[in-house]
């Protein structure tokens, strides 16, 4: 079996770019769905980081992959709760726009 | 790990309370599912029972020698004291949650009971775990349960608050994890003790990544602690949630997260405390100043308490910032002052929210100005609220004063005097907004109640909670020795 | 010891008693049938009267039993309170500790005397008596305990307690706009106590040896006598004192609070609460950091003189009695501050005399003018005039207070002013000369005010029909005048006790 060797920095760079996209999206997008997707994106980039380190890092071991399994599971739960709240909110306002979720504008 | 060593791992000591709470959470969830709807209160009482058992268990084992099991859980001083504190606080909150369930104005679903338990279990995991994976799972268990708890009443404000909390909390978790992933990448380890041994080398090899991951983790935890500039969710979440949930966020969640922050940051960055902890000091200063200034303009009681909890988080961050100068010889000072202030602040917070829940249910008090509607004969309630507000402000004879004095002494001892000075200077600002409600309550034109207040069933449980909190606040203010004496025998780490 | 404990604890116990007793309900009072002088809460003020009388008697015993020319703390007793852990095997043990020496006994007695007078001379409106008595007793306990404390934390705690009690007194007792005044009081004095706390902790840290922090005054002054303290500690203390004493330019809270306060609260404020700051300066600044005090002598003297002059001018231009009294009190404190700056035994003695007599004079002024206020509902000079005809007794007391204020020989103020100026000429002659001018000003403004009030044309025929002070109103004034005279005619016993506290200044060349 041939292994394709991808250098660690490139993988880290990919994760960093994904993380930044996710951070930008979570903080600036108006649609709540997109915000949740961005959250998921950030957590995925963390997973990429962990898996990359567990394979290519200074001390390769399986801990990183186990960690990423936990992350995936917990993130799923978090997003499920997020969608539940969005749904309840949508029933209220018929809108999934973040601006509508700001009755405290000052 | 062989079976033999598993048997000798003191599991009962390290994870006894945690497993009791987790198991009772699952049991209550099942019972609630199967139970007909008319047994409204049974799940709550069962949850209370579970918490009580766990508290007794934790209390019995308080003075035992610290243990370490499964490479994951410890029962050192910080873990056992915080376990007791968290269980006690949850117990108090659940007690006045019982009264909230009874009230007609608040359509509170029954799921609250076991969600409280799950969140408490998460908090316990956060204070007992020494492995990044377990810590993360604990953090998320607490956070996800809190998101649901906030949004649970399905009122408009609740949904908004829950949504904001979820989005920012998610960002916080991601930041924390991203930082943790770098630590894992550099060491290949997730255990705090192992990483602590390597930390000095780590700092020598790649200081830039250490600083980066420190900042990421600090910001991530900062969101959960509602430090400035990550505090935006706080007023909305506190306003939307029911009083007991808001109290939970402000006390249990904050205590657990502060303990975790202290442990994680200290152990992971042991080799570079001089270089990274000044960032915490800057953040503490920013939070104290901004939190107090923001609170000046608040007119709603809920938001006032929320923003003041931001300021209080700034005070609580001071001991952690002091780690920059601390040596192992003076760490007990840091631990002592942090935990003492945590105890005092949490009790005062729970008391304040308990009073608030009575005020909201009986007199629909929202704004500070509404407090003048409080009839004359409720002088004990007014006195209790005043006592809590003075406790927040750090007036003498309340625990808040002793807590702040201890923080100041710690800052002086560890040569970060400016933080202590700032703490007391902004406390003077805080007098203004903490005294505004007191002034309104004690205005002269109070009327006598002719039974106009909404007919609400007697809130015995809430009153018990308030009485307990007043007692502890005054006791710790007059005789802080009872707690400090106990702390002096604790092996914190 | 037993008497000091008794004197201290009675107001505290009485205050707790007041809070715990149920408030009587006003409901069965039919409108129109309200008796003007009797109130359903009358028994509360009697609790205060009895408690302060006990303290008052104990005070006499303390004076008799006080050993002269001894600079150790007498009647001392302490309870171990708790420990702050400072690290491994390092603790800061804090105590509740009380004791008196030549410096604190006179001020302690002033607090007791004025507290006793307040309860007999002033009665607030009926429905406020309970709250008023409770807070007043607590404030008196706090201020007495801050004078008698001989441990840092006891002092700090008492000081903060005065803050709390004072705030609620001003808030509940005010005439109008009391919220602003109370808040200002709280913010200024709160900031003051922040600075003082910082300075005191700095003192403890500077005196620390091997991780052990001392907290008792005796240990602190013994250790610090041989060690220098960072200048910043002294400066923090000094700023704290300026705020606490309402010195220019940080004075605005004091006239505002005085303007709106009820008479009892005003006596507390002007007579006692504004004496704690200078006490702290003498106790900690001069007593424990003599070297720093010496270095900043010119600064202290300058601030003192500025206060003396500014406040005298402000008092001159005051439009009513309350404002005049508050500024004249500030002005006297300015002179006392100047006397402290001389760092000589005579100067300290002068400052102490000034503190006590300014407390007495302010109380006399305030209580006399309160008697007029009750009848006229105004204390503005423009509405007063010719009162000597209708109210001869009140006018007499007012004149006596004014003479005491300007330092007539045979009053205690004269002793204080004379000693202050005298020691000032020995050390800082230029400043002392200016201070003399300030005294001249004080004669001008007080006599001017007297002229406008008691003599002068009668503006209004109603002024002619005013009833004079009744016996119940005038005997507290007589007691105050008696003390003012007693200290002026026989200053020696008092001075001997007080001198014992300033022995260490001799080593400084004072």
From TrEMBL, chain A:
EC number per UniProt: 7.1.1.-
Listed GO biological process terms: ATP synthesis coupled electron transport
Localization of this protein: Cell membrane; Membrane
Transmembrane regions: 6-25, 32-54, 66-90
Membrane topology annotation: Multi-pass membrane protein
Pfam family, one: Oxidored_q2
Catalysed reactions listed for this entry: a quinone + NADH + 5 H(+)(in) = a quinol + NAD(+) + 4 H(+)(out)
Family: Belongs to the complex I subunit 4L family.
HAMAP family: NDH1_NuoK
Role according to the record: NDH-1 shuttles electrons from NADH, via FMN and iron-sulfur (Fe-S) centers, to quinones in the respiratory chain. The immediate electron acceptor for the enzyme in this species is believed to be a menaquinone. Couples the redox reaction to proton translocation (for every two electrons transferred, four hydrogen ions are translocated across the cytoplasmic membrane), and thus conserves the redox energy in a proton gradient.
Protein name per the record: NADH-quinone oxidoreductase subunit K
Gene of this entry: nuoK
From TrEMBL, chain B:
Its EC number(s): 7.1.1.-
UniProt keywords, alphabetically: Cell membrane, Membrane, NAD, Quinone, Translocase, Transmembrane, Transmembrane helix, Transport
Claim: rRNA-binding is one of the keywords in the record: no
Membrane topology: Multi-pass membrane protein
Transmembrane stretches, start-end: 12-35, 42-62, 77-96, 108-127, 133-153, 165-184, 204-227, 248-270, 276-297, 304-326, 338-359, 380-397, 417-435, 465-487
Domain spans labelled NADH:quinone oxidoreductase/Mrp antiporter transmembrane: 129-429
Keyword Transport assigned: yes
Chemical reaction(s) catalysed: a quinone + NADH + 5 H(+)(in) = a quinol + NAD(+) + 4 H(+)(out)
GO molecular function: NADH dehydrogenase (quinone) (non-electrogenic) activity; NADH dehydrogenase (ubiquinone) activity; quinone binding
Cellular component GO terms, alphabetical: plasma membrane
GO biological process: ATP synthesis coupled electron transport
Group of enzyme by EC: translocase
One protein family per Pfam: Proton_antipo_M
Localization per record: Cell membrane; Membrane
Function text: NDH-1 shuttles electrons from NADH, via FMN and iron-sulfur (Fe-S) centers, to quinones in the respiratory chain. The immediate electron acceptor for the enzyme in this species is believed to be a menaquinone. Couples the redox reaction to proton translocation (for every two electrons transferred, four hydrogen ions are translocated across the cytoplasmic membrane), and thus conserves the redox energy in a proton gradient.
Family under the similarity heading: Belongs to the complex I subunit 2 family.
Oligomer and partners: NDH-1 is composed of 14 different subunits. Subunits NuoA, H, J, K, L, M, N constitute the membrane sector of the complex.
Identification of the protein by name: NADH-quinone oxidoreductase subunit N
Gene: nuoN
UniProtKB/TrEMBL annotation, chain C:
UniProt name for this protein: NADH dehydrogenase subunit M
Subcellular location: Cell membrane; Membrane
Entry-linked NCBIfam families: NDH_I_M (TIGR01972)
Bilayer-crossing regions: 43-63, 104-122, 129-149, 186-207, 219-243, 263-286, 298-317, 324-343, 349-369, 390-410, 430-450, 471-490
Molecular-function GO terms, alphabetical: NADH dehydrogenase (ubiquinone) activity; NADH dehydrogenase activity; ubiquinone binding
Membrane topology qualifier: Multi-pass membrane protein
Organism per entry: Alicyclobacillus tolerans
GO biological process: ATP synthesis coupled electron transport; electron transport coupled proton transport
Gene Ontology CC: plasma membrane
Family of this protein: Belongs to the complex I subunit 4 family.
Keyword Hydrolase: no
Coiled coil ranges: none
Domain NADH:quinone oxidoreductase/Mrp antiporter transmembrane, chain residue ranges per copy: 149-437
Keywords, sorted A to Z: Membrane, Transmembrane, Transmembrane helix
Pfam families associated with the record: Proton_antipo_M (PF00361)
Main location: membrane
């Amino acid at each position: 079996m041939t292994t394709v060797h991808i250098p660690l920095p490139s993988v880290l760079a990919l994760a960093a770019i994904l993380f930044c996209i996710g951070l930008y999206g979570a903080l600036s997008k108006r649609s709540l769905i997109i915000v949740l997707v961005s959250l998921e994106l950030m957590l995925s980039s963390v997973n990429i980081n962990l898996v990359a380190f567990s394979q290519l890092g200074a001390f390769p071991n399986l801990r990183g992959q186990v960690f990423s399994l936990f992350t995936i599971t917990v993130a799923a739960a978090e997003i499920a709760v997020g969608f539940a709240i969005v749904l309840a909110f949508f029933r209220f306002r018929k809108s999934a726009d973040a601006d509508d979720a700001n009755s405290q504008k000052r | 790990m062989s079976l033999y060593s598993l048997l000798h791992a003191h599991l009962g000591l390290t994870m006894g309370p945690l497993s009791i709470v987790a198991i009772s959470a699952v049991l209550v969830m099942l019972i609630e599912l199967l139970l007909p709807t008319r047994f409204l209160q049974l799940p709550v009482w069962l949850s209370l029972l579970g918490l009580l058992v766990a508290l007794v268990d934790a209390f019995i084992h308080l003075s035992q020698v610290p243990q370490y099991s499964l490479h994951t859980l410890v029962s050192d001083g910080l873990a056992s004291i915080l376990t007791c504190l968290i269980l006690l606080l949850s117990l108090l909150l659940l007690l006045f949650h019982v009264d909230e369930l009874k009230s007609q104005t608040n359509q509170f679903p029954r799921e609250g009971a076991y969600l409280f338990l799950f969140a408490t279990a998460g908090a316990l995991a956060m204070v007992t775990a020494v492995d990044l994976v377990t810590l993360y799972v604990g953090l998320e268990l607490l956070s996800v349960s809190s998101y649901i708890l906030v949004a649970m009443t399905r009122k408009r404000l609740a949904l908004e608050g829950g949504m904001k909390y979820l989005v920012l909390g998610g960002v916080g978790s991601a930041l924390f994890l991203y930082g943790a992933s770098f630590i894992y990448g550099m060491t290949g380890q997730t255990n705090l003790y192992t990483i602590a041994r390597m930390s000095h080398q780590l700092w020598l090899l790649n200081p830039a990544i250490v600083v980066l991951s420190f900042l990421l983790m600090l910001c991530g935890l900062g969101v959960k602690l509602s430090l400035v500039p990550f505090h935006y969710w706080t007023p909305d979440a506190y306003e939307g949630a029911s009083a007991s949930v808001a109290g939970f966020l402000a006390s249990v969640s904050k205590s657990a997260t502060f303990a975790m922050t202290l442990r994680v940051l200290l152990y992971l960055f042991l080799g570079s405390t001089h270089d990274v902890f000044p960032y915490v000091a800057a953040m503490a200063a920013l939070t104290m100043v901004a939190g107090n200034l923001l609170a000046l303009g608040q007119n709603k009681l809920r938001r006032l308490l929320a923003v003041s909890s931001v300021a209080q988080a700034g005070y609580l961050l001071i001991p952690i910032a002091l780690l920059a100068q601390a040596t192992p010889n003076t760490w007990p000072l840091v631990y002592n002052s942090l935990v003492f202030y945590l105890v005092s602040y949490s009790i005062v917070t729970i008391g304040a929210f308990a009073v608030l829940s009575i005020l909201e249910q009986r007199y629909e008090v929202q704004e500070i100005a509404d407090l003048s509607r409080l009839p004359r004969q409720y002088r004990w309630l007014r006195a209790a609220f005043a006592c809590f507000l003075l406790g927040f402000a750090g007036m003498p004879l309340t625990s808040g004063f002793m807590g702040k004095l201890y923080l100041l002494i710690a800052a002086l001892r560890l040569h970060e005097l400016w933080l202590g000075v700032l703490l007391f200077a902004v406390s003077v600002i805080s007098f203004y907004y903490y005294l505004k409600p007191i002034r309104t309550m004690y205005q002269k034109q109070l009327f006598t109640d002719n039974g106009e207040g909404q007919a609400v069933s007697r809130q015995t449980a809430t009153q018990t909670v308030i009485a307990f909190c007043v007692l502890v606040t005054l006791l710790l203010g007059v005789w802080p020795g009872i707690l400090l004496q106990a702390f002096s025998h604790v092996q914190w780490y | 010891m037993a008497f000091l404990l008794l004197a201290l604890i009675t107001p505290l116990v009485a205050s707790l008693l007041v809070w715990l007793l149920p408030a009587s309900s006003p409901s069965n009072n039919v409108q129109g049938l309200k008796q003007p002088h009797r109130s359903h809460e009358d028994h509360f003020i009697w609790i205060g009267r009895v408690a302060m009388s006990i303290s008052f008697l104990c005070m006499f015993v303390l004076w008799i039993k006080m050993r002269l020319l001894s600079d150790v703390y007498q009647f001392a007793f302490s309870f171990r309170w708790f420990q702050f852990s400072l690290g491994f095997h390092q603790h800061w043990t804090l105590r509740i500790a009380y004791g008196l020496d030549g410096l604190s006994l006179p001020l302690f007695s002033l607090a007791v005397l004025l507290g006793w007078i307040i309860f007999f001379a002033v009665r607030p409106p009926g429905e406020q008596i309970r709250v008023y008595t409770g807070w007043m007793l607590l404030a008196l306990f706090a201020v007495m305990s801050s004078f008698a404390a001989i441990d840092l934390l006891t002092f700090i705690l008492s000081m903060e307690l005065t803050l709390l009690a004072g705030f609620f007194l001003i808030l509940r007792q005010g005439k109008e706009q009391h919220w602003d005044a109370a808040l200002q009081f709280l913010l200024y004095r709160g900031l003051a106590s922040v600075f003082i706390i910082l300075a005191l902790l700095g003192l403890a840290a500077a005196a620390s040896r091997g991780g052990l922090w001392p907290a008792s005054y005796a240990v602190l002054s013994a250790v610090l006598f041989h060690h220098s303290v960072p200048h910043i500690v002294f400066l923090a203390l000094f700023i704290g004192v300026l705020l606490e004493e309402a010195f220019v330019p940080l004075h605005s809270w004091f006239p505002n609070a005085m303007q709106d306060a009820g008479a009892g609260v005003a006596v507390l404020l002007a007579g006692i609460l504004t004496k704690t700051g200078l006490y702290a300066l003498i106790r900690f600044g001069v007593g424990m950091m003599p070297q720093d005090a010496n270095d900043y002598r010119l600064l202290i003297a300058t601030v003192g003189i500025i206060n003396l002059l500014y406040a005298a001018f402000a008092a001159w231009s005051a439009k009513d009695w309350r404002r005049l009294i508050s500024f004249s009190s500030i002005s006297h404190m300015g002179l006392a501050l100047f006397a402290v700056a001389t760092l000589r035994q005579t100067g300290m003695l002068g400052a102490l005399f000034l503190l006590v007599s300014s407390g007495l004079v302010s109380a006399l002024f305030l209580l006399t003018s309160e008697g007029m206020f009750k009848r006229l509902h105004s204390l503005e000079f423009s509405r007063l005039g010719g009162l000597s005809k209708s109210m001869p007794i009140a006018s007499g007391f007012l004149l006596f207070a004014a003479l005491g204020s300007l330092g007539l020989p045979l009053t205690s103020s004269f002793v204080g002013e004379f000693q202050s100026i005298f020691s000032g000429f020995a050390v800082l002659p230029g400043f002392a000369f200016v201070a003399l001018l300030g005294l001249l000003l004080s004669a001008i403004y007080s006599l001017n005010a007297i002229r406008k009030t008691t003599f002068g044309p009668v503006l209004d025929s109603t002024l002619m029909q005013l009833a004079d002070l009744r016996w119940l109103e005038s005997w507290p004034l007589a007691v105050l005048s008696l003390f003012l005279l007693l200290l002026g005619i026989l200053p020696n016993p008092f001075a001997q006790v007080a001198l014992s506290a300033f022995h260490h200044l001799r080593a400084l060349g004072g």
